[in-house]
Amino acid sequence: SSDPQFDVVGLVRSEASAKKLMAKTKCSLEEVVISDVTQMQFEDVGDDSQQNPWPRALDGTEAMVICTSAVPQISKLSVIKAMLKIPLNILAKK
Q: What is the pLDDT confidence band of residue 64, given thresholds at 50, 70 and 90?
């Protein structure tokens, strides 16, 4: 159910993510913006109102909720280091 108080827009980094979001939420294309927000250059923005680093669809936005689906990746080196410390911890009775 849509809240008439808010115009909700999903911001995704890729077309593939947009398709997934639209399939899962049954939202329309007008409710999804594709933009890689990790590549925005705020320091390059001048006083010219025509220049801004965000997608035009977000102009006038009053609030933003940021959600991520990032999954932490454990490096093999950190696992090896942790395993090598086990005997030392046992000897030190930690």
A: confident
